[in-house]
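Much of what follows relies on a compact textual record of a protein's fold. With that in mind, consider the following protein and its fold in token form.
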Amino acid sequence: MVQVYEAREVEAALTYERLVPALRAAFAEAAVESPVRQAHDVGTSQAPGHLLAMPAWRRGAALGVKLVNIFPANADRGLGSVHGIYVLFDGATGVPQAIIDAEALTNRRTAATSALASTFLSREDSSTLTVVGTGHLAFHLAQGHCAVRPIRRVLVWGRSLARAGDMAERLAALGLPAEPAADLSAAVGAADIVTCGTTSTQALVLGRDVKPGTHVDLVGAFTPAMRESDDDLIAMGTVYVDTYGGALAEAGDLLLPAAAGRWSTDRVAGDLHELCAGLKAGRSDAAPITLFKSVGAALEDLVAAELVAAEGTPASPAP
């Protein structure tokens, strides 16, 4: 019988204490196969929209596919930007096992992946986190980073100070030391870790504002035309990616400075497989600015979906 897992059940099953180690093991093992995701423009000039299809499989064990829609203008309607479903199948028989809320799955696994990268790339004593963005993903990114570093101050910046204040209040209700920030430049300059979860096409985090020793986590921009950082920041930082194939095909944060001649793709210092398998080193001292650019990998979805099916309590069986 196919089990259905709604957002509440997904978030309860995917604690960062469970998910970060599971992702670390999966990236190190590299047994999950997945093609570069298919992305389609399905929106209009007034309401941009993207449809993503992301299959992945571990032969003989599990396979699944995520169908997700991203509509950035949903914020104006009081809706989240990301909606979709994940379907998990038995890898030996192909029998459907679970239908999982994809927004909750995506938010949780994305935040856990950033947290995993931070364990290699941020300073162990990082205490101030600046969150750029006030959407659903940014809310989870704050929690993920706080789960792996001794964060004592969380600064939340958004284009709307009121929404930044609302998100800070929701984080504070979870026990996180969050407060809104009116000045993005000052908030970035105060940070040990900067995490960005926006759908921006304009640089928000500027190299001139980032102090030495900072770790910058660039998550939101997922097409070649989108960016959250400027050319200066990419040129001055040590860049790591979630996967070479995905990031070098889709990440505007990297492709735009490369096209401008400010940076080259051969300067990527490593990916998560190499970091988790011990093939590449992460941060070696306190001074460098490190950057982690992720566009999402289907491996992360499959690992998270397997955890939900193994640890979660389903909302209901599918009819």
